[in-house]
Specification:
Rossmann fold, 164 residues, alpha/beta, 38% helix, five-stranded parallel sheet, single chain
């Protein structure tokens, strides 16, 4: 059930603001696509785990983007992260899956900077009408990841007080 539906709204008591028993809350999830067949280096999940734990964002790690809808279930994705050495079938599959989930779902795509990759990403972005793709030529640092996650979280109203 996506956020913002009538079922989601009515599971919170409007008088007491308590969640009704049996209500299913939708925790934010970052989808990390890690291919291990030489297209991308493993380790993106390791890079984002501590940040996501601190921000209380779940991680869904998949090896094939075509597994995302099945493994996602009722979880609410806030963003997608993927690293590739070039735009290949995996990247196209991922962009098509993201478009099927939500054309505004933020996608951080770590891909070498060259004209062919840039053109392929821009073409696929226009083809599937994706509105929030952030290509990076190298793995993001902590500051870039936090900025990306906060931008993604704001889209879903998930930027309340931080735990300290």
């Amino acid at each position: 059930m996506p956020l913002g539906t009538d079922d989601d709204v009515w599971q919170i008591d409007p008088v007491t603001a308590h969640v009704r028993p049996g209500a299913t809350l939708h925790d934010p999830v970052l989808i990390v696509v890690e291919t291990t067949n030489g297209v991308a280096r493993p380790g993106l999940v390791h890079t984002v785990t501590e940040i996501c734990d601190f921000l209380r964002i779940g991680i869904l790690a998949v090896n094939d983007p075509r597994d995302i809808p099945e493994q996602l279930g009722a979880k609410q994705p806030i963003a997608v992260l993927h690293e590739a050495s070039s735009v290949d079938c995996t990247v196209y599959d991922l962009m098509m899956i993201v478009a099927g989930l939500d054309i505004a779902l933020p996608l951080l795509l770590v891909i070498p900077e060259d004209p062919q990759n840039r053109g392929a990403v821009e073409t696929a972005q226009r083809l599937w009408q994706l509105t929030d793709i952030s290509p990076l030529p190298h793995r993001p640092g902590i500051r870039t990841l936090i900025d990306f996650l906060f931008r993604a979280g704001r889209r879903f109203g998930r930027t309340g007080p931080m735990p300290i």
